[in-house]
Specification:
By secondary structure, the chain is of the alpha/beta class. It has ten helices and five strands; from the N terminus they run E-H-E-H-E-H-E-H-E-H-H-H-H-H-H. Helix 2 runs parallel beside helix 3, helix 7 crosses helix 9 and helix 7 packs across helix 10. The radius of gyration is 18 Å and the shape is globular.
């Protein structure tokens, strides 16, 4: 079994040390490098090619958002989990828009940390879609949706459009399968096709996309 390679990015050495101890205690993951600021993180990601990056947002030299954008532009980019001390950090929405696979509180339990890394390494989104939706709704209320260019929407089949709507409203694959009377594998196939056609990385970005383009309005859940 190949261990998941993790890059730790935080300006506090003690925080990095604590995370390293937790990660390195697991057989299926290992810390391959650390960085104390955003610029160093970009260099470390290019040099060591991690599978998952644990990224603090507030850092010197280059902040986490700018560093994340640089890292995610690379071919075969790693997954990025945002570290935050607040459950609704003002930067989280921007982080999700850039391509973060979710966010993790710094006071999370060791079990939560390692499971988050495993989820991200599998290519899944860390947050339950309904949780992500609530985070985005609180911030989206402050600005109207952008009904501008939505490249790829016209390529979706009617069924894919239905699936996208339910994903954006926080439904799991099992719930979508039940609502649309489909098999779980068929739903997964539709989700994969939606991600490909819209150029998105995961379900979290589907939620962000839907809010940005007015496909879902704050306060409207699946009914």
């Amino acid at each position: 079994m190949t261990a998941t390679k993790v890059l730790l990015v935080d300006d506090q050495a003690m925080v990095r040390r604590g995370f390293r101890m937790i990660v390195d205690s697991e057989q299926d993951m290992t810390v391959i490098a650390e960085a104390g600021d955003g610029a160093a993180a970009v260099q470390a990601a290019a040099r060591f090619r991690p599978d998952v990056v644990l990224m603090d947002i507030r850092m010197p030299r280059l902040d986490g958002l700018a560093a994340m954008a640089e890292i995610l532009r690379a071919p075969q980019a790693p997954r990025v989990l945002v570290l935050t001390t607040f459950d609704l950090d003002e930067y989280l929405y921007d982080a999700l828009r850039i391509g973060a696979s979710g966010f993790l509180l710094k006071n999370a339990t060791p079990e939560t940390l390692v499971e988050a890394i495993r989820v991200a390494a599998r290519g899944d989104a860390l947050l339950d879609p309904s949780v992500t939706r609530r985070v985005i709704e609180r911030i989206a209320r402050a600005a109207p949706p952008d009904a501008g260019d939505a490249a790829g929407l016209a390529e979706l089949t009617p069924r894919e459009a239905e699936v996208l709507d339910l994903v954006a409203r926080g439904c799991s694959n099992a719930e979508i399968a039940d609502r649309l009377v489909l098999s779980g594998s068929t739903v997964k196939s539709h989700v994969a096709s939606i991600l490909l056609k819209l150029g998105l990385r995961d379900r979290i970005q589907v939620v962000v996309f839907a809010y940005e383009h007015g496909l879902v309005r704050p306060g409207r859940a699946a009914s």
